[in-house]
Design brief:
Blueprint: E1 3-4, H1 17-29, E2 43-46, H2 51-68, E3 74-80, E4 90-91, E5 96-99, E6 102-105, H3 108-117, E7 121-122, H4 137-143, E8 148-154, H5 159-173, E9 179-184, E10 189-190, H6 203-222, H7 226-236, H8 242-254, E11 261-267, H9 268-276, E12 283-290
Parallel strand pairs: 1-5, 2-9, 3-8, 3-9, 4-7
Antiparallel strand pairs: 2-12, 4-8, 5-6, 10-12, 11-12
Length: 291
């Protein structure tokens, strides 16, 4: 069976089974869900940095899904296309994805439905060096044993919204199974290191990145405006996976969601201060949202 091997295990998250499982449980033990969750969760947005920075918010989203749905049959995971340069979304449609936790099986039937319905291409090779989906899979394996996945890399083009709507239509018809869409994106990458510093440097600039630039993205996601979210994120540099986020929001909208719920929003600088007692002149934003 075709297997996609992990590429950032041991870097973004622990590379051995026991240490990986311990890290997941550490993230989950810190989860506090204070908001009233929707009765049904159809989608979520998670960050994809190293777990030191993004693990807490990713765990928050997956824990919220688990709280509302003991069993999920398949997660469609829309990933940021950091290195993929194709024009159409790329689907990994066969085999398994290996992580230190084990092997996650691809839902080949659902993958084929997506390929037959949406404007997307079959391209497992596009996923070989991409981390944005990989870092989510161990959480799924731990919380939802036996759940299948459909990994899809989503470029920031208009096809992202079409893809999400098409996937929403497919999910709608599968009433016998619980399917959840996950969009993987980090938010504003601010500072000279990222080539993005329109407000200069210092605390006021980092505050702007979080409270203005990130917030605009989050507000559009919560209001289920995928077209506007995609255009705004590309224009404003407020997300590295705007296609993945737009597809997720479009799917949630198609599935009848009327508003998203923000579970958490932090920056790498805030996490560094909390965990390491230090700060940086640069920062990346992270958010956890459910629909």
């Amino acid at each position: 069976m075709q297997a996609r091997k992990p590429v950032v295990a041991g870097q973004f998250y622990p590379g051995q089974h026991d240490s990986c499982a311990s890290a997941i449980h550490e993230c989950l033990e810190a989860v506090i869900i204070s908001e009233q969750l929707p009765e049904t969760i159809v989608a979520g947005i998670v960050p994809h940095a190293g777990w030191t920075f993004s693990g807490g918010l990713a765990a928050l989203v997956f824990a919220a899904i688990k709280q509302q749905h003991e069993k999920v049959n398949t997660f469609v995971i829309f990933g940021a296309a950091h290195g993929y340069v194709g024009a159409l979304p790329a689907v990994s449609d066969k085999g398994v994805w290996a992580t230190p936790i084990g092997e996650a099986v691809i839902d080949e039937e659902l993958a084929n439905d997506i390929l037959n319905t949406a404007r997307a291409v079959r391209d497992p090779s596009a996923h070989l060096g991409e981390h944005s989906i990989e870092v989510q899979v161990p959480f799924i394996q731990d919380l939802f044993p036996g759940a299948k996945i459909v990994p899809v890399l989503v470029p920031p083009t208009e096809q992202a919204v079409e893809l999400g709507t098409s996937v929403g239509e497919i999910v709608e018809k599968r009433e016998d199974k619980k399917l959840v869409c996950i969009g993987s994106t980090d938010l504003t990458h601010y500072g000279p290191r990222y080539g993005f510093a329109p407000m200069g440097s210092g605390k006021h600039a980092l505050d702007w990145a979080k409270n203005v630039n990130d917030k605009k993205f989050i507000d559009l996601a919560l209001k289920l405006k995928p077209v506007e979210l995609l255009a705004s994120a590309v224009r404003d540099g407020s997300a590295c996976g705007p296609g993945a986020a737009a597809a997720t929001v479009a799917a949630a909208k198609k599935l009848g969601c009327e508003r998203g719920l923000l579970l958490g929003h932090m920056t790498s600088n805030e996490i560094m201060l909390e965990k390491m007692g230090t700060t940086s002149a640069e920062a990346v934003g992270y958010a956890g949202i459910v629909f």
